[in-house]
Structures are given as C-alpha cells and as structure tokens.
Q: What sequence folds into this?
C-alpha cells in the first residue's frame, strides 16, 4: 500500500536516550536508551513493546585510546515479546574505522543479534 507516494510501514522503531554525566564522577554516567517498537501487523495487544529501565557506563582511556562501556537493564512494561532485556555495549575509536561498536542484548535468557 502507498500513501502520498511513499510505501506504508508495517513497524516503527525508536530509541530515545537520556544520559546524565555524574559531576566529578571520573567518566561515570547514568543512561537510559530504551528501544520502543510497534508492529502494526501483529495481533491486538501484541503490537507495542515499551521498555522501562536504564543503567550506567564509563568513558575511559587505555594506552591513549578512548573507550565507552555501559550496561543497561530493562523490563517491558508493555510487551509484544519477552519481558526482560539486558544490554551491554562497548565503543571505541581504537579501530581503523572511524567508530567501532559492539553490543550484546539478552532477552529473557536468550541472546538476540
């Protein structure tokens, strides 16, 4: 189906984020970056996934290279899938690419992507 010349989307994905840098925290910060999704083709009551939670992280240097590591945990207060998500991310500018990121997501005990 097409609307105004553009195909209609079956799903929507958004990730708002909030970071709070702890004053005099030596690189420590609080973070919340939930992934909110909606699947318009799913059965009623299973269309939305809305997680609530957050975590912490730290920016630090190793041999002059900057690293950013963080851990977050979420519970899906409105859910189409599993109820718990634990996310670990490590970012670095140390690779030959402009930016390198590694992520590990765990939903209810099962690793995803």
A:
């Amino acid at each position: 189906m097409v609307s105004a010349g553009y195909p209609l989307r079956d799903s929507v994905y958004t990730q708002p984020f909030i970071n709070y840098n702890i004053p005099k925290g030596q690189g420590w910060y609080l973070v919340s970056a939930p992934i909110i999704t909606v699947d318009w083709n799913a059965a009623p009551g299973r269309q939305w996934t809305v997680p609530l939670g957050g975590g912490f992280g730290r920016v630090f240097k190793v041999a002059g290279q900057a690293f950013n590591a963080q851990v977050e945990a979420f519970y899906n207060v409105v859910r189409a899938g599993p109820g718990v998500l634990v996310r670990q991310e490590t970012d670095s500018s140390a690779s030959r690419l402009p930016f390198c990121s590694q992520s590990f997501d765990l939903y209810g005990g099962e690793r995803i992507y």
DSSP finds no helices and eleven strands in the chain. The two ends are 30 Å apart (CA to CA). The first strand starts at residue 2 and ends at 3. Confidence is low (pLDDT under 50) at residues 109-113.
